[in-house]
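PROTEIN DESIGN WORKSHEET
SECTION A - STRUCTURE
LENGTH: 169
TOKENS:
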């Protein structure tokens, strides 16, 4: 990882009605925590709003991180977003407010190209760090659907990113 990394950004994923993380979210959180414990950054930025029910994805990320030994004071929450594009926009605001220059972006490998397009559209200097632990807990069907969803999403985000950079909107 590059020197001078300020924070690890963990992108949210589904939270079940009982407040438990989906396997996807749990994988992302575990990897982000591992990177933080290795000293790759000083801060953890948990990103993700509330889906159909409480708590927010960011709150679940925070809860798991604290349970695994990360101090509350090292975790910031972004709870407004409802999409990857909004994750990037809202995180970019926090990153600027904190004066951070560089972040590590943690998500699944299939989600990374679109995520990077969005974060870079909002001027965030991010290094991708996909989960390196496989897809344990996620069914083959769900994994396939996640990959298929990215096929139209990546070109859409590429165009949206270009538009964002040109217009600032």
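SECTION B - SEQUENCE
RESIDUE ASSIGNMENT:
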């Amino acid at each position: 990882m590059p020197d001078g990394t300020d924070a690890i950004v963990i992108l949210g994923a589904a939270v079940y009605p009982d407040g438990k993380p989906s396997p996807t979210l749990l994988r992302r959180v575990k990897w982000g925590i591992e990177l933080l414990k290795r000293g790759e950054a000083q801060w953890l930025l948990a990103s993700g709003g509330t889906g159909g029910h409480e708590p927010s994805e960011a709150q679940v990320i925070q809860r798991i991180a604290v349970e695994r030994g990360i101090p509350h004071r090292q975790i910031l929450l972004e709870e407004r977003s409802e999409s990857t594009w909004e994750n990037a926009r809202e995180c970019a605001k926090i990153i600027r407010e904190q004066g951070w220059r560089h972040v590590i972006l943690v998500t699944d490998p299939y989600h990374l190209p679109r995520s990077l397009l969005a974060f870079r559209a909002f001027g965030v200097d991010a290094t991708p760090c996909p989960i390196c632990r496989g897809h344990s807990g996620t069914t083959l069907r769900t994994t396939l659907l996640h990959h298929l969803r990215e096929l139209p999403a990546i070109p859409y985000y590429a165009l949206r990113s270009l538009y964002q950079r040109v217009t600032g909107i």
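SECTION C - NOTES
The radius of gyration is 15 Å.
The longest helix spans residues 140-167.
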